[in-house]
Amino acid sequence: MVISEKEFLGTNWLRQNLQQKPARPPSPCQGELGIANNPKGNLSVRNLMRIAVVLAATALLLSATQSAAIAGAQKRKGRAPRAAGPSLTSSESRQAFARLAEMGFGPGKSGLITFQKFEGRKVTGQLTREELDAIMTASAPQAKDPGYKHVEVDLDRQVLLLTDADGAVKKVLSVSTGSNKQYKEKTMSGLAYTPRGRFRIYAKIAGWRKSPLGLLYYPNYFSDGLAIHGNPSVPNSPQSHGCIRIPMSAAIEMSRELPVGTVVLIYDKQSFVSGKDWIAADKTP
Fold first, then answer.
1. pLDDT of 74
2. Could you tell me if 164 and 256 lie in one domain?
3. Burial 106-123 (b: 16+ CB within 10 A, else e)
4. Domain total for the chain?
5. Are 17 and 49 in contact (CB under 8 A)?
6. Which pLDDT tens digit goes with each residue over 98-150?
7. Burial status of residue 83 (CB atoms within 10 A of its CB: 0-12, 13-18, 19 or more)
8. Residue 82 and residue 22: Cα distance in Å, rounded?
9. Helix 129-137 with 108-118: angle, nearest 10 deg
């Protein structure tokens, strides 16, 4: 039987359904349940069960309606409910950035991005608790070819590692290298490729240099016009014509650190050539 809300909330339906039926012989169960057969209006077990069922169904309906309303409101706001993780304290943030600088990745957001690239993590530039844990448990970066002063460019990670006289890493920079795509700009065309192998810095310029493919800031040339140079745009992926772009803020310092003759090692997972024999030859009388 289906009743309307008005009938249910009113008294008509209750009066009709709670009206005492004609007396019938007591059931053996009535004695056990402690319910007497009272013809003057006491509720029978059957009517009690009927009321309980109706009330339970109403509660379920109200609960479903409320849940649907909440979900609809959340959808309209454009976001799903989520549990908020513990935020970092100012002390923890300072500790993380100090550790990044100590390992040679540099300060602030740029240092965090360089760390994420070096460690193969998702590059977000956001310091979360997960990133904090990774920073505080990470080991300092190591050169692939230690023992002498040089610079390494890891094409897979898109980072540059500068070492000191003993071959220990003193600075790590984000870079953007050749995109490996064909290009055609102005009067030039070719493959945007950064060569792998070992090279030496053979020339350098202080300040800006205008090239056929754009401006170079403090370029350090290592192979056929390709250079390590500052650029306002250093994306997280390979995007250059073949040069090795570094952040503008690091260009002057890198120029000082890379005198003519400095060994440059450029490698990926498939290729690596050491420069130690060159260094040995340099020391031979």
1. 57
2. yes
3. beeebbbbbbbbbeeeeb
4. 3
5. no
6. 999 999 999 899 999 999 999 999 999 999 999 999 999 999 999 999 999 99
7. exposed
8. 58
9. 70
